[in-house]
Prior knowledge:
Radius of gyration: 21 Å
Shape: globular
Order of helices and strands: HEEEHHHEHEHEHEHEEEHHHEEHEEEH
CATH superfamily of the largest domain: Type I PLP-dependent aspartate aminotransferase-like (Major domain)
Amino acid sequence: MVETITSGLDAIQLEEKYGAHNYHPLPVVLCKGEGVFLWDVEGKRYFDFLSAYSAVNQGHCHPRIIQALTTQARELTLTSRAFYNDKLGLAEKYVCETFGYQKALFMNSGAEANETAIKLARKWGYTKKGIPENQAIIVAVHQNFHGRTTTIISASSDPSAREGFGPFMAGFEVVDFDSINVLEEALSNPNVCGLWIEPIQGEAGVFVPHDGYLKAAEMICRKNRVLLMMDEIQTGIARTGKMLASDYEGVRADLLILGKALSGGVLPISCVLADDEIMLVIKPGEHGSTFGGNPLAAAVVVEALQVVKDEHLAENAARLGKIFRERMNSLIAKSSLIKLVRGKGLLNAILVNDSPESETAWNLCVSFAKSGVLAKPTHGNIIRLAPPLVITEEQVHECCDIIEKCCLNFK
Length: 411
């Protein structure tokens, strides 16, 4: 017999008892979502200002995406890649034409996509650049977040990601973010096969590099024959006001890494895009996934991306992001609690005027939740604020009113 949850406390106690304690959620138990809204088991409605870490850019349970999901689910969900299916090629063609690449490789999670990019960069380094076997280096940057696999955290500078999980994989060099000089030096090493960066560091607290940094990184990569590996899992799919955050500087990655909003939040789908010279270095049997490229995911990804285009979500994010930052910046003059506002499009963060070790940001998010806005701190004293891109201007102002009131009344 399947049990049902009737109270938030019951759900929390069950997770505490039977679930691993690898997350620290806010004490809100959600059971329904639609558009920009979420509801808890007691029936309270909230504005979602996290968007499942930017996985639901198209809004919760978008009817067109759900329709694509259910229609395909009635026909065929999984075959494995032992056979062809009638949906994968269509999805591959669609994403290649959308983003301007020759080949696509679908996986499931963002971490899997980054692992895929690592393997592609290394194999290309050995077979195309002529790097001696097992000597390839991938340059990453401080404060990066690409996932939590043991390979990925080998390039992390976050102690909470690394402590207790060694030994770590060799072949990574970690340099400062937003520094062109360090890239010039690091990428001049002939054994470097890839530069692995996020155009905006989301998990680190929405750190936006100076204008020109991404373009300079692209040019330094070209000069040294190094692959530019651009992780747009959180920043891509219209979140920052363009289809890709790297579009702001006209940068074209050699390996484009996507996930999260590729499915509109209904399935784990990720993808790596590259041209033939890079993608075809991997041969049959060298990489894959049982669920990667399944027909259910293939049908969903096409509809999820088409929704972004049809509803002009990039344009909406760009316009409303400016309004949101104006409102938040005006709050700095009214409240000593807010120290800094930063972001692009509808990927934004406020820096709370307290130490990362304090609980001020956490308690402020609890206050937001009580008033009907869901957000969560990252790195102690930074609150990321990223609503679904279907939000309206009126709703942005309503949420800003709530945030402002909570900050001004916070004790």
